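WARN no homologs supplied; continuing
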Amino acid sequence: MIMKILGVITARGGSKSIPRKNIKELCGKPLIAWTIEAAKQSGVFDRVILSTDDEEIAAVGKRWGAEVPFMRPQELAQDTTPHLPVMQHAVKWLKEHEGYEPDFVCILQPTAPLRQAWHLREAVELLQKTGADSVVSMVEIPGHFSPYWAVKVDEQGLGTLLVSGDPIRKRIPRRQSLPKAYTHSGAIYLFRTSLLFDPVEPNFYGDKVAAYVMEDKYNVNIDDPSDWTMAEVAIQKLRNEKREMRNEDER
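OK structure emitted
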């Protein structure tokens, strides 16, 4: 089945923790360029657009190969603006002004620069294989942070296991015996377009969600300066790995 998939890169201008974050240079290129390149190289999108309220970000996005068919309204570019109305606006605008209607939409946040082109290809393959309503990227939660070891405390100050409600003595003693648990990585949200306009509960997920599990070394979400440093270190590690692999192939 040939699917029309729209990739939407969301990058507003007002970043407080890291000023001008989306176009700040990260290891040789603007942060937003990492996501644009991965999206374009994946080959899974028939369009890759940028939703931004900022003219400079728009110019950088165009320079690196993204479409900028519109400028996002200021009311959808506030600190508290959720992603849902931003995505609804993008899809509505393309339908009303260009007659373009994708079957699926993928949110591509620039704050996940270690997402690779092959991650996106594998996410689409998983969507086709499972027939899911959506595919969401996940990473495994380390055992010492497992929800199965988490405790909730009641009003009297008494603790019980969060997941089961059992007494703490029932806690699984060995980390190796814990069930695997996962959390969102923020790198990929791929979903049926119709979910955005569900008359009862507009959303990105639907009822059948496929989890695309990524290796932790690709899991960096840049929200503050310490995350930026982590991203620089992680990118350098990946570059070193690739260099070592090439050297081995040449031997």
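The CA atoms of residues 49 and 67 lie 4 Å apart.
OK
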